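Subject: sequence -> structure tokens, single chain

Hey, anyone have a minute? Need the predicted structure for the following. Not urgent.
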Amino acid sequence: MPRKIPPPHRDDVLLAVVSIAAGLLLWSLGVYSSPSRHLLPDWAALVPLVILGALELLRRSAPRVTLAVGTAGLVADQFTVGSLATVVIFTDLMYAAVVYGKPAMARRLPVSTGLITVAVTIASVAWLRTPQALLIGVITGIVSFAPALTGATLRNHREAAVAARLRAEQTALLAEMDRSQAVVAERARMARELHDMVANHLSAIAIHSTAALSIDSPATSREALGVIRENSVQGLAEMRRLIGLLRDAGAGQEAVAMPSLDGLEALLEQARTNGAGSGMDFVLLDERPAAPSKPGEPPLPAPVELAAYRIVQESLTNALKHAAPGKVTVRLTRDRDGGAGPSAGTGTGTGTGEMLRVAVDSPYGQRPGPRAPGSGAGLIGMRERAELLGGEFEAGRAGAVWRVRAALPAHEEAVRT
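Reply:
Had a minute. Here:
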């Protein structure tokens, strides 16, 4: 199907009308470019003029055709008395062919017209052997090479402006994507913090309130109410701490202390209280070196301590919800051998550098008494915490034991990377 040619631009219509009118005016006044040439009648100079003037209507939509026909018209004009308007129109067609033509043609025309100008100049000097012969080359350059070079310069500027605008738009788009990702990441971080802080207390409240409702015993109800009150107060304190963290940057408050591994014993003591009625016991085995093995070795980075604390906290919460009666063991180790993966021993997965390993084992099976429902968000949060620090996480059943394994980099450089 042939390509449909769009209607001419309004400026091109005006240019065509003005060009033909100016040529007719010059012809009527007897102003010719070659008045001594009478190979054809004087009116014959109007034919190339009208043809080239009409081509102005197609200078944007069909630049290749207009340049080819315009070149033929300029050659035909040389056999008449000539019209200055025809020559001027041809220069505009050459300019338009470079500006609106295809990139290949726009690259070739300045080079080809420059070579033609040089060739015409050399041929004229060699043929006529007079200094005035140089004028022929100059005129050729003005008619062909100059407009082609001007068009190429303008086109390069336009393409550079378009490229700059595209780069600015891409930069703005990337900035917006970065902002959106930062918002999503911050929301995910807040969701993990909120879940890890509150889920433990609310799970204990749900379990003991159900026990108090299902067992008609004043002593049991009083004990359950005590646990409920303690977890309510602690949950409220955790919520206030989170609100303080969120307001810290804007209100200039003092930094609120973040949980660390030093608080694990208190965390397990709370778990013992909450799980006392379920036949569960909680044991902490901290096998980390009492002092750094290397002089001047820095302590664990704060993000690593927080992540390890939250992983243990969520593991204990899941044990209170789902574990069978028995012993829940929390084990912490710190080594430099790189390990072989989360499933190996207390495992890790990076294979290089010093690692903090967290292992939580809880009995797997049916449990008596009330249970709190789970959503799976805790496992997702623990995995995200480990992966954000460049570590690894693994959780699953191994026989009659539910195992949680996390490996976190224990040096500041890995956390920053």
